[in-house]
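User: Show me an example of a complex going from sequences to structure tokens.

Assistant: Sure. Here are the input components:
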Amino acid sequence: MLKRLFLLPVLAASLFTSCTEPGSDTAARLPILGERDVRPRADGGPADTIFATVPAFKLTDQSGKVITNQTFAGKAYIADFFFATCPGICPKMQAELLKVYAKYGQDPRLAFLSHTIDPAHDTIPVLRDYADRLGMGAAKNWYFATTGAKGEPTAKDSVFQLARAYYTAAEPDKQAPGGFAHNGTFALVDDQGHIRGLYDSLNEQEVARLMTELPILLDEIKSRQPAVARQ
Amino acid sequence: MVALMLPACFPVNKNQGERLYVDHCSSCHGGEGQGLARLIPPLAGADYLALHRAELPCLLRNGQKGHIVVNGISYNNVMPGEKGMSPAQLTNLLNYIENSWGNKSKPRTIREVEEQLQACR
């Protein structure tokens, strides 16, 4: 019943990156996941490695506010994909994310981004009600977002495409509970748009790994911010 | 009657209620019947179970949509029906839910559940 698609590439990606991550002389760093591109430099110096980033997106949140990649400038965020009437894995997934929020939600360097994969049903008022019922009505850093605030016919395709960029499989499936098959991946994205961790929210050990890896990334982000801004 | 009740006693059906709960209910209602905030009602300590006891077999079979009040809190979500569950399975499932996580209730018989299923719309 719980469809978990595309876990193999995710696994492959994490294996690949964990072996090639350059050694760090300070504390452990999280790997950068996904494709990379090596570009020779014109001056003949060492080639530059270009790491994949999350593509540009423009979404609307539960309060009707437009959110883009810029909304998360200087912050890490955890992305997941759900739908309000999902009777399958979503409640379990969001319950796990609530636990992460309870522990780290007050950190100014962290935000949460839950995308609906059912934009036709999950209008802004539905998303607001969902956030409210989840107890996140007053939270400023947990966005429940849609690609289809104005009923765009392409909304569904846009969010499925976005899901793939976060290594989450999502697609319509008449056999799946609620009409959509998707997996409960949490993607941890850094302040520069790189995916630094993928966690299966339905697996306790994976959520525990997120809990231990998250502060490592938050420390890294802190080290990038100017001292005056660290207060 | 005796023949109908026997399957629930065979070892193959031991803990069937718990297994059905884990497979069909726990991802929404939680491993401990705790529900989820104001999105999914709890089953543990839910007044609804006793207040609507006779309707529960039909509720499980047909699913539930729209407002529902549990322990004074209004929930508004969709629960899919379990059309494929037999009266025996529904009986075992309900007996598990109604006697777990601090819940206590008179055990249901398959006969009783079958009669209650007659009332399903």
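The lines above are the inputs; the final block is the predicted structure for all two components together. The mean pLDDT of chain B is 91.
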